[in-house]
Amino acid sequence: MFGNNAGDGYEQQGNRYHDMVTDALHEAAIPDSSREEPNIDAQRFYNMLDAANEPIYEGCREGLSRLSLASRMMTIKSDHNLNEKCMDSWAQLINEYLPEGNLAADNFYEIQKLVAGLGLPSEMIDVCIDNCMIYWKDDEKLTEYRLKRLYHSERTAASMRWHAQHSVKDGEITHPSDAKAWKHFQTVYSDFASEFRNVYLGLCTDGFSPFGMSGRQYSLWHVILTPYNLPPEMCMQREFLFLSILVPGPKHPKRALDVFLQPLIHELKMLWHHGVQTWDYSQQQNFNMRAVLMWTISDFPAYGMLSGWTTHERLSCPHCMDRTDAFQLKNGRKSCWFDCHRRFLPPHHTYRKNKKLFRKNKVVHVPPPVMQPGASLLEQIDYYGAKETCKVGGNWHTPPNMPDGYTASHNWHKKSIFWELPYWKDHLLRHNLDVMHIEKNVFENIMNTLLDVKGKSKDNLKSRLDLPELCARPELHVTREGKLPVPNFRLSGVAKQKLFDWAEQTGCSIPDLLGVLEITKRNPDGSFVDGKSEQLYNDVTSKFQELSQAASDDPESTGSSGLSPMEKSKIYCEFAPRKKGRLYGVGSLNTSLRSVPASFPSSSTRDQSLEKIIYDQAQKIESQGNEISKLYKIVRHLASKDSTVADILQSEDVSSASGDDDESDAI
Questions:
Q1: What pLDDT is attached to residue 399?
Q2: Which of 183, 440, 495, 536 gets the most CB atoms within 10 Å of its CB?
Q3: SS (H, E, C) 320-366
Q4: What is the largest CA-CA distance in the chain?
Q5: What string of DSSP letters covers 592-628?
Q6: For 223-228, what is the mean pLDDT?
Q7: Among candidates 637, 640, 649, 641, which has minimal Cα distance to 610?
Q8: CA 288 to chain centre
Q9: Do residues 42 and 279 make contact, with C-beta atoms less than 8 angstroms apart?
Q10: Bond into 253 cis (ω within 30)
Q11: CA-CA-CA-CA torsion for 391, 395, 399, 401, nearest 10 degrees?
């Protein structure tokens, strides 16, 4: 799947390194009176690029340099997990086939030295097996190097001042620098803001399993910094996302994440207090570059790991804190935030007095909770006695060690390492939630409820049992017979089918389950991680080919022999083994497919044209092989109860749709 275009990707990457060298060495139009000589670090960087940009051999194509070859070989090593001996062999082989006098590296050690000269180092830091502490401070300038390089290149040097020089329209926020939090910080720290070239950073983190859904328990956590000085179209580009820390696992760091953040926080403090001498290519000047961390970005569980405020149980909201209106459901036995939003409405809004549409007989007069300033939060943390992870150890934050009043009057489980930053308490906005996770979770819960997906719908027996106490919805209460009345928001079988047809026509929401299997279970070399995955892939693809061939051989075929995404996904569901309701290789992506009902007319529709209805259902049988047995039994049952149906069943139309006698007997 990846092999055909791999060469093009590596070639493009080599050209990018050539362009980077060209940009860095390009002359800038600066008056001679304003020019300065690059500082020692910048000059060393330019000298290295100049030497690395030499053609790898005389007469070679433009862009093929020592640097581009070394960088591409390092990328190949990383992509295919090659060991050093293998890289040595490849380096020797390339040297033998290139003309004499070429500049290619002889071994992997030389490749490493050349790439390391870019000034983008990494450091391996040992950590206690229990995440109690790390052993570091041998190298404290990993982030500094990356930020300095932004000012050494013509492409990015001028763009680093964009945040302060772009035009702003009243009422519009096109960049974080247009927002209230950014402007508040610049007001408080005007000396920092006066130097447009100082760097504003954002930090994001998340965890993932590098082994996909193979079942192996492994948690890999990355911490990424991105400079917000750049314009929006550059901020989120891959080359400006700096991987600062990688926690390799296999254990989830949980509340011990601060232990791993120590080197980064130490360097951020240095960049704030002292800064670092940097050469600005665009203005041909040296200046003292400082940096500030504006905020973090994460999902809600990681929010708790970063902020120190536990994000579960009744007090999980970090805005409302102990002033929350959340309550415990008696039957669902979960914390619920239903009807907590009305106090955020304007004081005289009509919904505040409504006793029927929200919690019954409840009128809301209280104002919304006031957002606590950073200094107040810091006092609160110290008052309750929350400990610093780096002082007590990564595994110290267990229930017996929690501060007094934990989960009752507060949710502080630790004093976050970010409070060490001298400006952290003055930020208006310290932590952000990743919109992607919120949209995904909200969408899935809404769709699972509308489609009534078993085990995933929020409209279940426990929620119905809690309903009488909370809402004036008697039509949805559980009946004396223990049945749940069908709500008007649940989609009928016809509505579901229309939804799936629309999704299929527009090309959205229909997952390519076989493609997901390849992503999660197939190695880059084309092999599968295990025999089970390979057998499933072969069975499904064979079925695809069989059905496509049958459709193309059918003289009555419309000429379209390709299977639709819905049909392919249903075939995958037939072959894939299940465990606890989850499809092998794709997790729970099949839930929407399993919710499609097998629709068939009931006895109340007999006054309609039964011949047309049964014929239509028979046509659907051909594309729903796994439903044919149930559907045929229903038809036989109707025929035994209704003579009209029996006559229709004997007609040649239905007989031709059902197949010949041998096939019918087999069914």
A1: 83
A2: 536
A3: CHHHCCCEECCCCCCEECCCCCHHHCCCCCHHHHCCCCCCCCCCCCC
A4: 104
A5: HHHT-------GGGTTS-HHHHHHHHHHHHTT-GGGH
A6: 93
A7: 649
A8: 36
A9: yes
A10: no
A11: -30
Count the helix, strand and coil residues of the chain and give each as a percent rounded to the nearest 5.
50, 10, 40
The tokens describing 408, both together, are: 């009752």
Contacts of 169 (CB under 8 A, 6+ apart): none
How many other CB atoms sit within 10 Å of the CB of residue 531? 8
* CA–CA gap between residue 171 and residue 168 (Å, rounded): 9
Return the SS3 of 197. coil
Distance CA 260, CA 125 (A): 9
Q: Where are the domains of the chain?
A: 6-116, 128-298, 491-597, 603-666
276-280 and 327-328 as β-strands: parallel, antiparallel, unpaired? unpaired
Question: Which amino acid, one-letter code, is at 163?
Answer: H
pLDDT (mean) for 482-509: 82
Say what the pTM is. 0.65
Angle between helices 565-575 and 513-521 (to 10 degrees): 60
Of 661, 658, 663, the residue nearest 619 (C-alpha): 658
Write phi, then psi, for 316 (nearest 5 degrees): -70, -25
* DSSP conformation class of 211: T
- Element spanning 506, H or E: helix 493-506
Instruction: Give φ, ψ of 279 to 5 degrees.
Output: -95, 120
At residue 126, φ and ψ (nearest 5 deg) are -75, 145
